[in-house]
Amino acid sequence: MSFKNIIGNDKIKTFLTKSIEENHILHSYLFTGIEGIGKKLFAREVARKLLCLEQEETEDCLSCIKWHSENHPDFYQIEPEGSTIKIEQVRNMQEKIAEKPITSKRKVYLIIDSDTMTKEAQNCLLKTLEEPPEYATIILTSSNESKLLNTIKSRCIKIFFQGIEKDKMEQYMKEKYEMEPSKELLEASQGSLGKMIRLQEQKEIYEQIDNWLNQIEKEDFITMTEKAEVLYKEKENIQEILEYIVVSLYHTKERKKLNAIQHIEETKKRILASSNYDMCIDYLLMKLWEEMNEKYSRSSI
Ligand SMILES: [Zn+2]
What we know:
single chain, binds zinc ion
């Protein structure tokens, strides 16, 4: 990975590359901008460059080798555990920061989604930001900087990442995914490649759901279940998906499909209350099939 492989925000690339080459490195940076525009990728590449011993394109110095094996003793990254970054995570990071670098001349600390730090964690980090060891650089990323304490923000040099230009997004999607994003998709992504990829993936999910719903009456139970594979896979998005199914069934205005809605609603609750996700889906499929195929009813399943 090098800056060449990261799209967009060329001015920031130039600025950071120059800072590293001229050894004008500050102790703390805050990378801000909407989610999914590559702040973490950037931060990791800056970290590699800061740690690199030779600044060669080949990336084969001892530091880069350790970096690429994801085993660099002078690099430390923290990310939210669950939905927040907790004070213990910051403390663990601070314990190591006092030890001098081993392989490189510097140590780099990355705090991803730093705005998810609890208040306690932020206050704890403040001590390090106020008096960092001379060899340490701390990079914070954030897509919601209003949640960061002003005292934290004032200690960091802020670098604002802009949305990626539409033509670059288009080109990237063509090369990586062999697809041409629609105008709507480009619009909805707001310059965030991460968001575009997620929307694109979800588009496929909903297409699968539509196909499954269209076939639901025509298939035998086993085939219908096989075609519902997406429901088993998409545990994380299931509430949204079930809501989508409710709306789709509602729009058909067919009595048996309207009747089926109650089973979806029940399943939404059951999933929240149950630890056996697959069983909830099994049960839903059985109920739906019964509803759609009244003539076979329970006896023939
Ligand atoms: Zn290197």
